[in-house]
Write the structure tokens for this entry.
Amino acid sequence: MNTTDRLHADLQDNLDEEYELELEDREFLADGSERPMTEAERLQRHLYFETLFELQRDLVRLQDWVVASGHRLVILFEGRDAAGKGGVIKRITQRLNPRVARVAALPAPNDRERTQWYFQRYVAHLPAAGEIVLFDRSWYNRAGVERVMGFCTDEQYEEFFRSVPEFERMLIRSGIQVVKYWFSISDDEQHARFLSRIHDPLKQWKLSPMDLESRRRWEAYTKAKEVMLQRTHTAESPWWLVHADDKKKARLNCIRHLLSLVPFEDVPHPEVVMPARVRHEDYTRRPVPHEMYVPQVY
């Protein structure tokens, strides 16, 4: 296969990989059947792919600069259940080195962690030089789900608001860039996405009892969000709100905005030269037993 054919094949692999991710965006009707895509939506989808690939190229450039400069970047993704946080995180990290850009999605605290300083388990995941950490939910759990579901006391809730601005200032003073995103969706859109999770067997694992309870407590979560934004939106560490009713637009807008916040620049790379394959006349490849191979069913 020549170089041109190889590049075309790699591009098709990228498209296939993205198509697999886009299966997450399937929509279902009330009877459980999948809603067909219109021709206009198909054309819009191609434009989305083209734009996404361009932004992902810039994310790779950002990654190179982070590694070269020793920059430390923390990105928080918050929002209601099914708001699309996981989708944008996947698109950001899709082409990046997992050793540089890693995701922190912490489970509920265990008995020992509940007795620690509240921020302690999050501190363990903060980046070292040349690293990016994306928090899929963060220390703001206390201002949201813990408050609404009664998992924290009033005193713990108030102490969080006293502590978090200074905690984030400490991170920023230490040289860590902190970016905070809230993904905002409407009541109707969350309802539709929950129905999609119910009907799609590939998504049912995403639907937890906590998610279902959040539907019932929509207004309580709204009030908690409003208080959180009011009390933790600071000049040093502002919140950025993403309109997320349209998943694809939300991803593109968020990635473009993130790129605008990081002062990255191109990092020069030495020209890569493929070394010649070294062959030895006395080397003979040993046969591998047939039973060791995975059956070629496809």
User: Anything to note?
Assistant: The radius of gyration is 23 Å. The chain has one domain: 40-263. DSSP finds ten helices and five strands in the chain.
